[in-house]
Amino acid sequence: MEKTKQAVLSSVPRHVAIIMDGNNRWAKKRFMPGVAGHKAGVDAVRAVIEVCAEAKVEVLTLFAFSSENWQRPAAEVSALMDLFFKALRREARRLNDNNISLRIIGDRSRFHPELQAAMREVEVLTAGSNRFILQIAANYGGQWDIAQAAQRLAREVQAGHLRPEDITPELLQTCLATGDLPLPDLCIRTGGEHRISNFLLWQLAYAELYFSDLFWPDFKHDAMRTALADYASRQRRFGKTSEQVEAGARA
């Protein structure tokens, strides 16, 4: 029985999605400006990438900047944009050397043209990498993603290439920003909050959720390994009973 149970437990997630929360609170606790927390968070990003790549996770999606984050103080937004730009330029070669492909999802229209150009450059530079996909969600919102997918399908119907009844959940999913990638198996949120904050709303329908009290800058190698170990202990049922899943594993 133990073998059967073990056989249906999750092992390594193909796709991990992370809401990197707690940078500001990490900095505040140390009497530092908020941007210091964001800078410290870059080290956590590197650590998590290393653990995921070692574990043979295929895709890592990081929620870097939501469509609601524009409401933050102008000085913080400006500092974040500057940090994002410098990180893209600094990390591009390292990602390419490590065979990591970088993708950026979200509405880029609000970003400065120079930052948009940097995004395109790093995507082109790393496009041939196939060991691991790092996906950054910037000016991204789950509601925006579903709306833009619906708009794409509406244009196809308007052009006569598609009938309304042809629109299925599977077809809409292909039009999402992550449409060519596996759905997230595991979603992690740091910082002690228990919500998904408009992140990958459609894609997280059956993802396993993991919440950590650690602020993002403190979420390093051991914390990521603990999250993966927790995931590996879970049984994913997708609406079925445990008995059905175990019977399927025996078949």
UniProtKB/TrEMBL annotation:
<dbReference type="GO" id="GO:0071555">
    <property type="term" value="P:cell wall organization"/>
</dbReference>
<dbReference type="GO" id="GO:0009252">
    <property type="term" value="P:peptidoglycan biosynthetic process"/>
</dbReference>
<feature type="binding site">
    <location>
        <position position="208"/>
    </location>
    <ligand>
        <name>Mg(2+)</name>
    </ligand>
</feature>
<feature type="binding site">
    <location>
        <position position="26"/>
    </location>
    <ligand>
        <name>substrate</name>
    </ligand>
</feature>
<feature type="binding site">
    <location>
        <begin position="195"/>
        <end position="197"/>
    </location>
    <ligand>
        <name>substrate</name>
    </ligand>
</feature>
<feature type="active site" description="Proton acceptor">
    <location>
        <position position="69"/>
    </location>
</feature>
<feature type="binding site">
    <location>
        <begin position="22"/>
        <end position="25"/>
    </location>
    <ligand>
        <name>substrate</name>
    </ligand>
</feature>
<feature type="active site">
    <location>
        <position position="21"/>
    </location>
</feature>
<keyword id="KW-0133">Cell shape</keyword>
<comment type="similarity">
    <text>Belongs to the UPP synthase family.</text>
</comment>
<dbReference type="InterPro" id="IPR018520">
    <property type="entry name" value="UPP_synth-like_CS"/>
</dbReference>
<feature type="binding site">
    <location>
        <position position="38"/>
    </location>
    <ligand>
        <name>substrate</name>
    </ligand>
</feature>
<feature type="binding site">
    <location>
        <position position="70"/>
    </location>
    <ligand>
        <name>substrate</name>
    </ligand>
</feature>
<feature type="binding site">
    <location>
        <position position="72"/>
    </location>
    <ligand>
        <name>substrate</name>
    </ligand>
</feature>
<keyword id="KW-0460">Magnesium</keyword>
<dbReference type="InterPro" id="IPR036424">
    <property type="entry name" value="UPP_synth-like_sf"/>
</dbReference>
<dbReference type="GO" id="GO:0005829">
    <property type="term" value="C:cytosol"/>
</dbReference>
<dbReference type="InterPro" id="IPR001441">
    <property type="entry name" value="UPP_synth-like"/>
</dbReference>
<protein>
    <recommendedName>
        <fullName>Ditrans,polycis-undecaprenyl-diphosphate synthase ((2E,6E)-farnesyl-diphosphate specific)</fullName>
        <ecNumber>2.5.1.31</ecNumber>
    </recommendedName>
</protein>
<dbReference type="GO" id="GO:0000287">
    <property type="term" value="F:magnesium ion binding"/>
</dbReference>
<feature type="binding site">
    <location>
        <position position="21"/>
    </location>
    <ligand>
        <name>Mg(2+)</name>
    </ligand>
</feature>
<comment type="subunit">
    <text>Homodimer.</text>
</comment>
<comment type="function">
    <text>Catalyzes the sequential condensation of isopentenyl diphosphate (IPP) with (2E,6E)-farnesyl diphosphate (E,E-FPP) to yield (2Z,6Z,10Z,14Z,18Z,22Z,26Z,30Z,34E,38E)-undecaprenyl diphosphate (di-trans,octa-cis-UPP). UPP is the precursor of glycosyl carrier lipid in the biosynthesis of bacterial cell wall polysaccharide components such as peptidoglycan and lipopolysaccharide.</text>
</comment>
<keyword id="KW-0479">Metal-binding</keyword>
<keyword id="KW-0808">Transferase</keyword>
<dbReference type="GO" id="GO:0008360">
    <property type="term" value="P:regulation of cell shape"/>
</dbReference>
<feature type="binding site">
    <location>
        <begin position="66"/>
        <end position="68"/>
    </location>
    <ligand>
        <name>substrate</name>
    </ligand>
</feature>
<dbReference type="GO" id="GO:0008834">
    <property type="term" value="F:ditrans,polycis-undecaprenyl-diphosphate synthase [(2E,6E)-farnesyl-diphosphate specific] activity"/>
</dbReference>
<keyword id="KW-0573">Peptidoglycan synthesis</keyword>
<dbReference type="GO" id="GO:0016094">
    <property type="term" value="P:polyprenol biosynthetic process"/>
</dbReference>
<keyword id="KW-0961">Cell wall biogenesis/degradation</keyword>
<feature type="binding site">
    <location>
        <position position="189"/>
    </location>
    <ligand>
        <name>substrate</name>
    </ligand>
</feature>
<dbReference type="Pfam" id="PF01255">
    <property type="entry name" value="Prenyltransf"/>
</dbReference>
